[in-house]
Amino acid sequence: MSKSYKMNNITLTFLTLLFVISCSENISPVDSGLENKVFHFGNGSEPQGIDPHIVTGVPEHHLLIALCEGLTSSNPKGGKSLSGAAESWDISSDGREYTFYLQKNGKWSNGDLVTAHDFVWSWKRMLTPSLGAQYPDMLYYLVNAEKYYSSESLPSISGELLKYIIDTEELSQHHDKAKVFFKTDSNEELVFNESSDLFEVLSLLEEVDSSYKNEEIKDFNEKFIETKSSLVKSVNKWNFTKIANNIDFDNVGVKAIDDSTLQVKLSNPTPFFLGLLSHYSTWPVHKETVLKFGSIDDRNGQWTRPGNFVCNGPFQLKSWELNSRIIVEKSPTYWDANTVSLNEMHFYPVQNVMTEDRMFRAGQLHLTSTLPSQKCPVYIEEKNPDLRIDPYMGTYFYRLNTNHPVLKDPRVRKALAFSINRKQLVEKVTKCGQIPSYSFTPPGSNGYQPDTSISFDPEYAKSLIKEAGYDENNPFPKLEILFNTNEDHRKIALAIQQMWQQNLGVQIELVNQDWKVYLNREMIGDFEVSRAGWIGDYEDPNTFLDLLRPNRGNNKTGWANMEYDALVEKANATQDQVKRYELLNKAEQILIDEMPIIPLYTYVRSYQLSSDVKGYYPNYLDHHNPKYIYLERD
Three-class SS string for 329-374? Predict the structure, then answer.
């Protein structure tokens, strides 16, 4: 799960007015919250949205865990998963088949019953490539799920490659051959004919590849050769024989036995599967509501608007004031409504961490999303009773765009990594107990200990830069660090900028973007170096290492290593945990050797929590189901 936070002047104006009104009545939101059972939540960023199959991020998770529910739910104290939309389940002796029995009174917020068919349709939606979900791989553990997704992707990928040939002037001698595979619609637009012969298409693609691979054609490698290579691998892996309809969704390992019984079949035993199901990407959406406002792959999100949104969690969406406040209220239809104490939760997007700190001290928030880095050592010294510093399964890192002409060289990527003093970064910049990272996976993740290192070695880093061909006659070009609006992200970027300049002589430009713009630029590869954070979605090292496999939606680096991919896949088919972790360690070593990402530090969860808040327990994933939270003053 990616991590970040933000806010603007409209929010600040609104919060100032709220503060004035509260003071004029001599009662703060935190004080009034005790009587009204309203929880005031600092959420850090304006959420990208609340479609569980599209979003990615911590602010979105905070909303979705209140609004929706998967088959299992996270234990508020950490540990084994608890019942969610499923009241119980059976697991076959070989660990490959799960049978889930849904809550008998499980309902959507509009009163409809939650059925096994809802999960089947929702998982089909997740595996629809045109939706553009970033987490379809969360379901790849199901029999034939990846094959289905790959098959459904074939028409669009084939069409895009052929369209590239037609649109590229340098490939004009192949234009007529490519146009054979298209029809003309009523608007005289070319439309790819999905009934075209797959092997004739592949033959033309191979002809273009072999004829022009050494030619200087703009974006040819990224837009044609790499995409074509991925297509060919997919065809060979799954033995596809046609462009469309290679496999029906009925062959994917999920089936509604009846309205209240869901059968799931896995390709291999997957020890973390129940934990994975508490991630929002696997949660159901209300089919009738989605289709009322669009199609199965509609990303416009009309169905997620207040007044339209229907889900199955302990709360329902009441209002959404953009860049100001989101209010959710207790759902009367939730199957376990008697457990829910809160009447409402108010989520505030607060970009400025100092503003959030002031809001907390003024009694406007029960919980902050984070702490100003300069305040943490002060609060530790003062023994601030509201300060919390908890272990957190997350890594703060920099993504490198390996398609960039400079960053495609692993020597350059390693030079950047080895010229960073991580110890200095956590002691002088973040200053709140963070731990320097020398691996992507946090040490201790479900007993896993990565055996990798990234030493601070400026001389070695300089030698790598020289080895890559850069010197006074061929100066290293300026690079950009992209980060989303947040003061602490800026401080870290400034520190990295200084280290790279001092240790390598590399000039760095800092680029600060709004959260949604930042996410979009990462998604389309419009960056060179990008700030990132990844929080474990379940307690297993796979939640980190799977991220960097080829064609994963959250990879975003352009890096693809087949040996790495094979090791992670083999590990996930291995039941013996010792052997499994040995395979994952080998994969982690490849990752650090090639350095498509630069790990900086392991997170801690540092925040402030009002003593009025009960039922909020520290846990490694920082998952807090609000159904267990209540307000009470000691």
Answer: EECCCCCCHHHCCCCEEEEECCCCHHHHHHHHHCCCCCECCCCCCC
